[in-house]
Prior knowledge:
Chain A is an alpha+beta fold. Chain A is 28% helix and 36% strand.
Amino acid sequence: xxxxxxxxxxxxxxxxxxxxxxxxxxxxxxxxxxxxxxxxxxxxxxxxxxxxxxxxxxxxxxxxxxxxxxxxxxxxxxxxxxxxxxxxxxxxxxxxxxxxxxxxxxxxxxxxxxxxxxxxxxxxxxxxxxxxxxxxxxxxxxxxxxxxxxxxxxxxxxxxxxx
Amino acid sequence: xxxxxxxxxxxxxxxxxxxxxxxxxxxxxxxxxxxxxxxxxxxxxxxxxxxxxxxxxxxxxxxxxxxxxxxxxxxxxxxxxxxxxxxxxxxxxxxxxxxxxxxxxxxxx
Lengths: 163, 109
């Protein structure tokens, strides 16, 4: 894991928040299929057991069918859940491009609740990176802003629709 | 239009620095008129109108007529070909954390 060369080429997303609930409650929400459907997406075949394979159906893009293929890498009740998160298609650029990442959930008890940390790692430099460079840095900010707008735009919890 | 063609069209449209500046101003405002866009831009209203046509054609903006005025706003979906996975999931997870908070509130009463 701690390969510095690999780290230099990949990037990660981290979200870290404290919830006013017990770790047990959070664990249940992270690992119960019906509850997952209510805040994340409805999984097919999920089990909080190492090796379990499951999928999520998301919006297809270009040559990609929109299926996220996952398998559980680690499951320590009330503490840690790690799964591989893979999808995409080599013909695509941007959304729908090949994706080989890992989602790690860490739970720790803190005063007044549970600290939940999500690390979504393994994003390689996207194939449209050169395009970004051509546009300059100011452009990246615009894209981020617009991405935020589009998130507000589709309030509906279903990750499936649009086009 | 295939994804590659869509990307090409968006890139080509935004390759022009003036047009890109026009687009960035539209993104920053909720809605903006040609007159407001022209002010302080250093180019004529005719040139701005031309850029607006290109941006509209590429699906990057939409317009709304109100009386004699036309207002422009950004069309977030137009940029979809440019948004990479990381940008996508950055927004995705923030949204999901908000959902999670709501679900937890409901089940943990």
